Amino acid sequence: MSITLLCLVKGNTTASAFAVDIDREKLVSHLKDAIKEKKQNDFAGIDADRLKLWKTTTKAVGDPPASVQLWGDFFEQVNSFHFDQQPRFERPRFVMKEVVDEEDVRSVLDFNICQILNKLMGPDCVYSRRPTDTPGIPDFNCHLIGSLILVMEAKRKHVLEDMGEQTFPEFYNTSKGKDVIQQIYNYMGGNELRYGILTTYDNHWFLCREHTKLWISKTLSLESESPPVLKAYAYLT
Q1: What residue stretches are annotated with the Crinkler effector protein N-terminal domain (predicted)?
Q2: Which of 102, 161, 182, 216 could be bridged to 60 by S-S, CB 3.0 to 4.6 A?
Q3: Which residues share a beta bridge with 214?
């Protein structure tokens, strides 16, 4: 299935926006090739893989959750759960990479989180960036034996820099907090999913939806050992 993306070169006005058609199954590298081909003069002398892409969205709309509450015991649930191969999740060695923009966030998440989880969890559980024929286009998704079970949304750190030491239910009272949560809540509700994950890579939040009510965990840092980040991800599957 082909989709049409509206593209805009950073610094240009919306009057310069152009459309690019691409198959939903294609990867970001294919999109870069399509953009370079579409704007050959603008990107002459620039290799397609050097292009930096940002996914932007309009203000998130839709019915908001009836309530946003703290998933206060999530960390305790993860810590007390015992996997058959528990030691594999404890202290992974992450490859360090400077994260500048949202595409960097997605790339390092794919390499350090998703690909590692795919190796640890086995062939039945697959974290992927591939688009699915479902409402919305989340950054990542997870399928268990072919069925979509959760979605992930990546954000640059600066999007959440005003959050400070607040919990997400507290930050939700701000307009920026509402927009961030509304987007992933739409993905979860549109796909009838119970779980979702919001991440800046350095920090992670785990979401649980019950009908129109939403619970969000405390902030889990990448360096956490109680619980380890990978174990928290695996727990939701």
Answers
A1: 3-57
A2: 182
A3: 68, 209
| Beta carbons within 8 Å of 76's beta carbon, 6+ residues apart | none
SS3 87: helix
Q: Which residues contact 62 (CB under 8 A, 6 or more apart)?
A: 182, 185, 186, 189
Is 176 in contact with 155 (CB distance < 8 Å)? no
Spatial separation of the C-alpha atoms in residues 153 and 137, rounded to whole Å:
9
What residue segments make up the domains of the chain, in order of their start? Answer: 2-50, 67-235
SS3 letters for 98-121? CCCCHHHHHHHHHHHHHHHHHHHH
- Classify residue 108 by its DSSP letter: H
CA–CA separation, 104 vs 112, rounded Å?
A: 12
CA atoms within 13 Å, Cβ hemisphere of 39? 18
Check: CB of residue 181 under 8 Å from CB of residue 194: no
**Tens digits of per-residue pLDDT, 176-218?**
889 899 989 999 998 899 999 999 999 999 999 999 999 999 9
CATH architecture designation of domain 67-235? Alpha-Beta Complex (3.90)
Phi then psi for residue 165, to 5 deg, are: -95, 5
**How far is residue 32 CA from its own chain's centroid?**
20
Q: Which residues, 6 or more positions from 216, have their beta carbon under 8 angstroms from its beta carbon?
A: 68, 69, 70, 71, 167, 168, 169, 181, 198, 205, 206, 207, 208
Contact 59, 179 (CB under 8 A): yes
